[in-house]
Design brief:
The complex is a heterodimer of chains A (about 500) and B (about 350). Chain A is of the alpha/beta class and about 500 residues long. In chain A, about 35% of the residues lie in helices and about 25% in strands. Chain A is globular, with a radius of gyration of 25 Å. In chain B, about 75% of the residues lie in helices and about 0% in strands. With about 350 residues, chain B is mainly α. Chain B has a domain at about 60-290. The chains are: A alpha/beta (about 500), B mainly alpha (about 350). At the A-B interface, β2, α10 and α11 of A face α8, α9 and α13 of B.
């Protein structure tokens, strides 16, 4: 069979880091080829090399047997290569068809030929079964639909090799399924699909062949039928991953009670009359499609936002209007969903980041508000060791760490408080498989210590692994609340789309 | 720490580059750069007299530089040092020409306190409006500069107009309020001790105390600071008021130590020079101390250079501006490089 893409001994370095290390890889024409690996394994870099976003240090790339050297994505597009990025590159105020043709507009004489642009985009959408209104402005589309616009862009540019960089990270299970159907259609019509992911289940479901990458190296390419999910997981992580179990605990004492909480912002009711409780030693997992009120609920529990009405009670004390600091003093620990915007100051050092929230403790605060620098330093060093944060020194900027290591900094800092309640949101987003296991273990250790835990996550596997009970939010309401034993992916997925059983 | 070294490197390299280009310009005047710089340095620190003048020149720049540094460090943009300086200086002078017969020690303490309070209040107003109503503090402080400068201009041409000749100034203040000169040949006076204490307090606040940490975190990521339980609003107010107090102190020392009156051009842009210095060293108070000294050396040595070698003093400005330009360029290049390296693998 002919090869669509061949990488020969490709190497790429960033400073002292070798992101891609002498990779050989061939992608056959007309297959769905998955590349799997942890964050930082070099998958995305390899694809960006192919797409002309980075320049290759050494080695060569062949596309359909022809040696190529792209200096920008424009060259790659001209050679029939398209890429859907993790972050969409769309103009919100433009309509779907305008976004699709942008940069390659059909012209009549010298002016933009809107009519044929609209017609062409509509036909393309129809041909691949993408149900999207081409006249809608992009800002009004859901994330899933925006992704389709990105895909249409590639098709419009006549791409034959389509690269998808973690496309399902932002989708619900049902939306992911739709995407897979589209990918299969591409394959049937003779296009080549390169699919990047770290979700094993997805890779197993759609791929013809699977390549595993670790530390910038290609560890091998396998036919889908010839490798098991367990073996893949081991290769990705570089070791065996034990399954986590939840020992049963007595859930009788209520730690946190949320009573009829609502939030109105700019005249819109974002959270509608939500009530639930979290008990000692219990993990309550909250799932939902992004934008259904989970973030706001999370911020109200943490104290970053005040509810419009309703009450939040923590061990029989009304904490609804207490400040963040007062809540922290009562043992409410918070790992926010967005570590870069909320959980860290990326420009500050690791040490400074680890001190936050601890700075008023006697251990660090001397007379006249002097900070005890020595204690702060040894504290940060011990956290770096305990939580295996990979860094050069505590003085290193937190923003230079990988996503997983940043999250370890946040978790180390928060878990070193004496906690009575843990509010944790998206704890493993953008974290590699080894890191996920580490963080999950830490959370379950807190559970064993009889700490009440409220978990927000858009990763359903995570919710199902960790939670004793599962709630789903839809349009500001809790739409589903059930024990884990009685829940499964289908039920939760349907609830996320607003369907009640 | 790494950041600090990087900053230090950029600043040093930029400074020497600017000095080098300054040297080339000296060649245009057919003067050997070595002689030129030697004259400049000798003219600034060559003997006790010139050293004292240089230190005297340094004080207002140092204080306004620290004033800017503390507010910018906290992420609240006090562009109003000029107005705070003017108003404090004027109020102190107005007091000094109005009240007489207060014992000197007491009068000095009162004078300095009033200067601190006036500067502090003039910064508190925009600070409060910012924190409470989220009014843009940059616009506010710039407008309040105009109010203060034109108000004092009116006062020295109206109610407080001097009866002792020259225009655009108040009368000489009560002698009890004067800081004694340390040397009859220069303006350096005992006010320098007040400046030293103020500098020590700022270094403590910014470098060693919890407040410095919380300020920095609020600037780098305000949401993060709120999340960590920092009372960001109170912290911002504190930084703003301390910043205003320092600018006020600069004005107060100029009145009570240097001129013994308020005059219309009391600050020939000290606050702007201070701002550039503070930004150049990334709001590091130690950096402000060093750069304001270097600036004072160049400024007072420039005069000597012109007198002795016929090189225009403006050369000093050129060197200063060049080093600012190189520092800015240096930071943006190094940030770009950092981003490159960071761009995931």
């Amino acid at each position: 069979m002919k090869n669509a893409v061949e990488f020969e001994n490709v190497t790429k370095k960033f400073g002292s880091v070798t992101a891609v290390n002498a990779v050989n890889l061939s992608i056959e024409d007309g297959e769905i080829h998955s590349i799997i690996g942890e964050n930082g394994a070099g998958k995305t870099t390899l694809m960006r090399l192919l797409y002309g976003m980075y320049k290759i240090d050494s080695g060569s790339v062949k596309v359909f047997g022809k040696k190529v050297r792209f200096s920008s994505p424009k060259d790659a597009i001209a050679n029939g290569i398209g890429m859907v990025h993790q972050n969409f590159m769309l103009i919100d105020s433009f309509t779907v068809y305008e976004n699709v043709v942008l940069g390659f507009e059909p012209k009549r004489n010298l002016s933009f030929d809107r009519k044929s642009a609209r017609r062409i985009v509509k036909e393309l959408a129809l041909r691949y079964g993408m149900n999207v209104n081409v006249d809608e402005k992009v800002e009004r589309l859901s994330v899933g639909l925006q992704q389709k616009v990105e895909i249409l862009k590639l098709l419009y540019r006549k791409a034959n090799i389509l690269i998808f960089d973690e496309p399902t990270a932002v989708l619900t299970p049902q939306e992911s399924q739709l995407l897979f159907d589209i990918l299969k259609k591409f394959k049937e019509s003779g296009k080549t699909v390169i699919f990047i992911s770290h979700k094993l289940r997805e890779v197993k479901e759609i791929s013809n062949r699977i390549t595993v990458m670790r530390n910038g190296k290609n560890l091998g390419t396998f036919k889908n039928e010839e490798i098991s999910e367990e073996r893949l997981a081991e290769m990705v992580a570089g070791r065996k991953i034990p399954k986590l179990s939840l020992p049963s605990v007595d859930f009788s004492k209520v730690a946190l009670k949320v009573e009829n909480v609502s939030l109105v912002e700019n005249g819109v009711e974002i959270v509608k009359n939500v009530s639930f409780d979290v008990r000692e030693g219990e993990v309550l997992g909250v799932a939902g499609v992004v934008g259904n009120g989970q973030s706001e609920l999370e911020e109200m529990v943490s104290g970053m936002k005040k509810p419009t009405s309703g009450k939040i009670v923590f061990y029989d004390e009304d904490v609804t209007n207490l400040s963040v600091r007062a809540r922290r003093e009562r043992g409410m620990v918070y790992i926010p969903q967005d570590r870069i915007k909320t959980g860290l100051a990326p420009l500050a050092s690791i040490k400074e980041n680890m001190l936050m929230g601890h700075q008023n403790k006697k251990q660090f605060l001397g007379k006249l508000a002097f900070l005890k620098r020595g204690n702060i330093r040894s504290f940060s060093i011990s956290l770096i060791e305990d939580y295996e944060v990979v860094c050069k020194s505590p003085e290193e900027q937190a923003g230079t760490l990988s996503g997983g290591n940043m999250q370890r900094v946040v978790i180390a800092r928060e878990f070193s408080h004496r906690a009575r309640f843990l509010l944790v949101s998206q704890p493993t987003r953008g974290v590699d498989i080894g890191g996920i296991e580490f963080i999950h273990k830490k959370i379950l250790k807190m559970r064993e210590e009889k700490i009440a835990i409220l978990l927000f996550s858009s990763d359903l596997d995570e919710i199902l692994t960790l939670s004793d009970r599962i709630a789903v939010m839809y349009e500001g309401r809790i739409n589903y609340l059930c024990t884990r034993e009685k829940s499964d992916l289908t039920k939760i997925g349907l609830a996320m789309l607003g369907m009640k059983r | 720490m790494m950041e600090r070294y990087k900053g230090l490197l950029i600043i040093t390299v930029s400074f020497f580059l600017a000095i080098f280009i300054g040297g080339l310009l000296m060649l245009l005047y057919k003067v050997s750069p070595i002689d030129g710089y030697k004259e400049m340095v000798m003219g600034a620190i060559g003997n006790k007299f010139v050293l004292y003048s240089t230190l005297d020149r340094m004080i207002p720049i140092l204080l306004t530089g620290l004033s800017i540094a503390i507010s910018f460090h906290a992420g609240i943009w006090n562009i109003g040092a000029q107005g705070q300086l003017y108003l404090a200086a004027f109020v102190v002078a107005a007091m000094g020409v109005t009240f007489h017969g207060i014992p000197s020690m007491m009068y000095i303490v009162i004078g300095v306190s009033v200067g601190l309070v006036v500067g502090g209040i003039w910064a508190w107003i925009p600070g409060y409006l910012k924190v409470k109503y989220n009014v843009n503090e940059v616009v506010l402080t710039i407008m309040m500069n105009s109010i203060a400068v034109y108000f004092t201009l009116y006062m020295v041409n109206g109610p407080f107009r001097t009866t002792q000749g020259s225009l655009g100034a108040t009368n000489i203040i009560d002698k009890g309020m004067w800081f004694k000169h340390l040397n009859p040949l220069s303006n350096l006076n005992t006010g320098v001790y007040v400046a030293i204490v103020a500098t020590a307090v700022i270094v403590y606040l910014m470098v060693f105390s919890k407040y410095g940490y919380e300020w920095k975190m609020s600037r780098l990521n305000q949401r993060f600071a709120v999340y960590g339980g920092v009372d960001v609003k109170r912290n911002l107010m504190m930084a703003m008021v301390v910043s205003g107090m320092l600018a006020g102190l600069a004005g107060t020392l100029l009145v009570m130590g240097d001129y013994h009156r308020f005059l219309n051009g009391i600050s020939p842009g000290y606050s702007w020079t201070g701002m550039i210095l503070a930004m150049m060293v990334n709001y590091d108070p130690i950096g402000v101390i060093i750069t304001s000294f270097i600036y004072a050396v160049m400024a007072s040595g420039g005069l000597q250079m012109e007198l002795m070698l016929n090189i225009p003093q403006e050369l000093v400005q050129i060197i200063f501006v060049l080093s600012v330009m190189f520092v800015t360029a240096g930071y943006s290049v190094s940030n770009k490089m950092a981003n490159r390296i960071q761009e995931e693998g």
